[in-house]
Amino acid sequence: MRFAALASLVAAALAPSAYAATYHLSDNWVGSAFLSAFTHEAIADPTHGRVNYVDQATAVAKNLTYASGDTLILRADHTTTLSASGAGRNSVRIRSVKTYDTHVVVWVSFILTSAVWPVVLTSPPLSASMCATCPKAAVHGPLPGRPTKATGPTAAKSTSIEGVNDQSPNAMTLHTGANCAMPASRTMTGTATNNNCDVNTDGNSGCGVQAPSANSYGPSFNANGGGWYAMERTNSFVKVWFFPRNAGNVPNDVKAGPATINTDTWGEPTALFPNTSCDIGGHFDANNIIINLTFCGDWAGQASIYSSSGCPSTCVDYVNNNPGAFANAYWDIASVRVWQ
Ligand SMILES: *[C@@H]1O[C@H](CO)[C@@H](O)[C@H](O)[C@H]1NC(C)=O
Ligand SMILES: *[C@@H]1O[C@H](CO)[C@@H](O)[C@H](O)[C@H]1NC(C)=O
Ligand SMILES: *[C@@H]1O[C@H](CO)[C@@H](O)[C@H](O)[C@H]1NC(C)=O
């Protein structure tokens, strides 16, 4: 009797901790720490953008990568007019040396104090200025874990911060191999745009969730002073939260970045991808964190998307001939923290 009672007490005590969403800080990158924790990848852009990714020495020498104090700025060349037959615009793509498996939380703080992404807010006419960044787009923020497993039937990408041209709100999307779907009804503040995550269906759109607030990406994200993105990945789900800079509900865990956090207290996520019809652990390999800046390419460069954003000529012509338009298109990242 006594043993039984003891056993159930132990079980009760263990059960919550086995499932509690408590994590411990494992990485905290600020400023120049990014230079050793991340590799600059001088590779051909996998999405065929009009960019030429350069190595770290070149990026630092040309001030495309600027790491100092509590600032990391990643930008593209904004002074050179490009030859149509030559390489794309010099730009930067960095990848974390460490990879992360399940039970990982990535916390990102962007402080975008100037009109970073699109220059829209400053220079009229509106349609022309929008195109300052027309060139693009899908900014896979520090959030996006990327697969180390790049090929094969279950090759999968992880969630990414994606936005096309100046369009907001931001969408959070999982891209997976076959047999991964999301339930129609989920407890999240965002709105599902597609429930089949399989890249082989629905024109590779993945299963997306649109953030409820327009200020999650692009000009309004910047105007609002940026914000925080957080991603929690376990074998049971992937959750993504976005908190605008001045929101009243930013958890202290997110703002202060303490040694231990508990995501159970963070409230409803912006996007929830549960494992009910998707073996999350099986579809996703260990993720790197990649931060890159590309223009045009497979998605934003699509003629229909490009022109519906109000942009002139073609995306590639625009990138070649308007270097000044990229002066304000850059990542300004205060810190990236990971808890495991
Ligand atoms: C490099 O870029 C940073 C950030 O934009 C800027 O503050 C700094 O003045 C630049 N340095 C040079 C030498 O241009
Ligand atoms: C970053 O790179 C990925 C491919 O690895 C691509 O899908 C995405 O569009 C890129 N985004 C930006 C802004 O560079
Ligand atoms: C979802 O994840 C939980 C916890 O990891 C696991 O017990 C369950 O079997 C998973 N369900 C499916 C359908 O994969």
Automatic annotation (TrEMBL):
Keywords: Hydrolase, Signal
CDD domains the record matches: GH16_fungal_Lam16A_glucanase (cd02181)
Keyword Hydrolase: yes
Biased composition (Polar residues): 156-169
Record protein name field: Glycoside hydrolase family 16 protein
Key word Transmembrane helix present: no
Example GO BP: glucan catabolic process
Region (Disordered) location: 143-169
Signal peptide bounds: 1-20
Pfam family, one: GH16_XgeA
Gene Ontology MF: a single term: hydrolase activity
